[in-house]
């Protein structure tokens, strides 16, 4: 009887597979997602977003459901692109249908009580979008007033409404949590 117990234990011990080795992440660390962060986003936060996937693409695009679609005033809103096959997520800034947005590059002027500055989005690469969204997020968190020069040549304010600022910061916080920043 003891012999069968020992043989049974040895068979059980040797029949178990070794744990699968973790695949090494080879992308940029700023875009990296992990399984726990993706699960948290998918189960807890994704209900607040519209999700779509372009045909023949393995990327999920998330847009906040309550973003204003008003075209009478300018609005920039972030979208989260989850490239789950590469364990990466990207943040892209979308413009609403406001007709006087500049078509080439977008130069944002920020102003606080004691200082001013500018930053721009030129060619919309992953890195440029990430840096531009981060700069917008920092300005909104610090309470700066934001504006840009329209096609007509006048200065137009961005994020005038409290809800627009809040929506932008919510998406950025969700993105930073997804990428564990």
Helix content: 25-40%
Q: End-to-end distance, in Å?
A: 57 Å
Sequence stretches where pLDDT stays below 50 over 5 or more residues: none
How much is the average pLDDT? Answer: 88
Largest sheet: 4 strands, antiparallel
Q: How many extended strands? A: 8
Order of helices and strands: HHEEEEEEHEEH
> Numbering strands along the chain, what is their spatial order in the largest sheet?
1-2-3-4
* Integer tally of domains: 1
Compute the CA-based radius of gyration. Answer: 23 Å
What general outline do the C-alpha atoms trace? elongated
Q: Classify the beta-strand content into a percent band.
A: 25-35%
Helices and strands in order:
Layout lengths: L1 H14 L19 H11 L3 E5 L6 E5 L11 E8 L4 E8 L10 E6 L4 E6 L4 H16 L3 E5 L5 E4 L3 H17 L3
Task: Give a brief outline of the structure.
The protein has 181 residues and is α+β, with helices and mostly antiparallel strands. It has four helices and eight strands; from the N terminus they run H-H-E-E-E-E-E-E-H-E-E-H.
């Amino acid at each position: 009887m003891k012999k069968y117990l020992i043989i049974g234990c040895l068979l059980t011990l040797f029949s178990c597979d070794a744990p699968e080795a973790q695949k090494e992440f080879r992308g940029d660390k700023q875009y990296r997602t992990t399984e726990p962060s993706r699960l948290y986003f998918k189960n807890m936060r994704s209900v607040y977003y519209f999700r779509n996937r372009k045909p023949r693409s393995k990327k999920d695009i998330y847009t906040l459901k309550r973003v204003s679609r008003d075209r009478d005033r300018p609005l920039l809103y972030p979208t989260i692109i989850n490239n789950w096959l590469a364990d990466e997520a990207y943040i892209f800034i979308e413009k609403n249908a406001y007709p006087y947005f500049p078509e080439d590059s977008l130069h944002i002027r920020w102003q606080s009580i004691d200082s001013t500055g500018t930053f721009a989005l030129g060619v919309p690469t992953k890195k440029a979008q990430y840096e531009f969204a981060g700069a917008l997020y920092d300005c909104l968190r610090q309470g700066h007033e934001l504006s840009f020069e329209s096609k007509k040549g006048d200065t137009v304010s961005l994020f005038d409404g409290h809800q627009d600022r809040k929506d932008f910061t919510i998406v950025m916080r969700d993105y930073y949590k997804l990428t564990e920043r």
